Automatic annotation (TrEMBL):
Belongs to the POMP/UMP1 family. This is POMP protein. It holds the Pfam family UMP1. The gene is Pomp. Keywords: Chaperone. GO terms for cellular component: cytoplasm; nucleus. It comes from Helopsaltes ochotensis. It comes from the Eukaryota. InterPro entries: Ump1. GO terms for biological process: proteasome assembly. The keyword Chaperone applies. The keyword ATP-binding does not apply.
Amino acid sequence: NSRGTASLLKDSISFTEVSASGLFEGHDLLRRGFTSVKNELLPSHPLELTEKNFQLNQDKTNFATLRNIQGIHAPLKLQMEFRAVKQVQRLPFLHSSNMAMDILRGNDECIGFEDILNDPSQSEIMGEPHMMMEHKLGLL
């Protein structure tokens, strides 16, 4: 059953999918944070979209290079490994470091901006575990 496995593999859910929307529902400040007009606008700089898609573009370039050097089997094998690593995760309400993905991409020896200034344990947004598991299992 491909639909059942696809619903089990979802990484995270947004709060708008979980909350009940009605006529009298207000903005939930504790769960969604302050509203920002900046988030709803188009990118302010032409390089912003390129930076958002940097990892995807880098993977495409690496796969094309691998295909030219080693043949079609190398990028296919690497893509299968990426898919296998993406499927193995923690529960949806727990942060996953995706260490195996970093090892496959070669980022395990690099210290980046997100390693220092993006500590998920200090995040202010934490979902309700029961609601997130029920949504992941398709019970909601």
